[in-house]
Amino acid sequence: MPAFTLSRRRLLGAACVGAATGALLLSPVAPVWAAAAAEAELATFMELSRHLTGRNDLDAKVGQSLHETLLKRDAGFAARLGELQGKLGKTPQGLSEKARDTARQILSAWYLGMVGSDYTATVVSYPDALMFKAAGGVIKPRAFCYGMPGSWAEKPGFGRA
């Protein structure tokens, strides 16, 4: 005799549970739940960012853009974000390699204003990067380049006036 017998009651119960689950997922409430989860995840990201950078004046719009970009580039980022939040307050030596890597990604994104370091890096907000604020506002990023495009590649001429 099989360990699981299918009776009419079990079949009807499973059908009802499946229908109720489908109705909940397709209802107008589902997007609200998803939006609430996304807001909570962004709040976690901003809390971790403030803790890691030691700054309470982080721009919320820049933070949202950085968070979205980190999620797009790394599918496991959200899970590691939760893991890092659970270990908040520990010394770096007490963190796992994954948690340290996540902390580095967050710090790099805020200080450089971009996500990634290879040729596919995504620039999110270069002028608002914390690397400029760390210098006390003395260093301002240039919004222009000297010379024609590509002029930096030419050998400098010596003795020209």
Helix and strand run: HHHHHEEH
List the total number of helices: 6
Distance between the termini: 99 Å
Relative helix content: 40-55%
- Average pLDDT for all residues: 76
Enumerate the spans where pLDDT stays under 50 for 5 or more consecutive residues: none
Strands of the widest sheet, in order across it, are: 1-2
Task: Tell me what you see in this structure.
The chain is mostly helical and 161 residues long. The chain is built from six helices and two strands; from the N terminus they run αααααββα. It has helices spanning 8-26, 29-53, 60-73, 77-86, 97-112, 130-133; strands spanning 114-115, 122-123. The protein has a two-stranded antiparallel ribbon.
List its salient traits.
mainly alpha, elongated, 161 residues
Produce a short descriptive summary.
By secondary structure, the protein is an all-alpha fold.
Topology:
Layout (H helix, E strand, L loop, with lengths): L7 H19 L2 H25 L6 H14 L3 H10 L10 H16 L1 E2 L6 E2 L6 H4 L28
Antiparallel strand pairs: 1-2
Helix pairs in contact: 2-3, 2-4, 2-5, 4-5
